[in-house]
Amino acid sequence: MIGRVSLLAFVLGALVTVGVQPVGAQGAAAFPxxxxxxxxxxxxxxxxxxxxxxxxxxxxxxxxxxxVPVGVREWLGDFPFQERPWAKEQLGGVELPxxxxxxxxxxxxxxxxxxxxxxxxxxxxxxxxETLSRIAPTIVQPAEYGxxxxxxxxxxxxxxxxxxxxEEAQRLVDGVRAQYASARAANPxxxxxxxxxxxxxxxxxxxxxxDDIRTQFLTWLGFNxxxxxxxxxxxxxxxxxxxVLVAVASPDVLENDPIYGxxxxxxxxxxxxxxxxxxPLAAAIGFNSPLSLQFLxxxxxxxxxxxxxxxxxxxxxxxxxxxxxFPVQIEHKLGVTVIPKEPERVITVGLxxxxxxxxxxxxxxxxxxDLARSPGAPFGRGARTRPGLKSASGSTSGMSLTGSGTRMxxxxxxxxxxxxEKTC
Length: 424
Fold this sequence. Notes:
four-stranded parallel sheet; Rossmann fold; elongated
């Protein structure tokens, strides 16, 4: 116990020396404060003096308003979170005591004698919440947000209120919002483009859904997200062919892969590579805090703009090549048809039944997968809705004309999948 007290005294003393004020150093706020959340409501009777953050990113939010936690949760993976570049000034080179990584160390948390536990980005179960609430008032995310889905600005404002530092929190939020607005104004080409944040594993890839904080920076910049998100096998790689891809992978992994390397988004250089989860930009996206977002936007926006520009150049070249190929003359059983220019609106009237009957590069993998799931079943029965290309009307089609921008007019839109997977 003596060693623990000495360590905490050293940490707090060092932080005060470098100019980061401990909890309670600023003016008093109106307490008690009651905050509603997913598991009900929590009343904080007085300004907190000893704060423990058990959310994976929450130490950034308290440090941003000058509050030094007495205990923090470790960042998952090998990224040296205690040395993260965007919080150097606030940390002053001092490592904060930790209270667990994947699993929380409840005894350690209790020993730190906190008077507030912040868990807005912790994914607490009801039993974990009850346990921590018996130690100190505990705040989780509002009911309208799932685990790992609270927006950064909402998290900052709630943190500021819980700490009695609402004005400081509002100034930070306004500043980052203004930075986003400047980035959108400087890059109007982002608006309406589709971007995806993706990571890879031995089984395939994960396109992060809209309720994950690692996609929120893309939508704040004006990008749209893909129609389908979640975990997919490598056979679904075509889902990655969006306008710009932010990939937690090295260029060698994708460019030399026999499947991923054939994607237009890879071949045309429209990928922003983050070299693993130890890449500071990947970690900054994961922290998604007012501190990390300022760091992130300064570095990643130019890379996103360059990727979009490369796509525009390649698209113009492709259009010229396709236009040069017309008019096209096709002979068939009833004579000859001349197509004067590249078609923009196509209607298909051929009749097919089941995915295998389409016999296209898009349909065959699904047909084989359905057969593997249901050996002997008639084609089309129990098969999943086949994905396709988004049409001008917002519907999708199960067919495509390879190598062109032609859109098909048929069949209803597929539904979106999502993932509750947590990766830092």
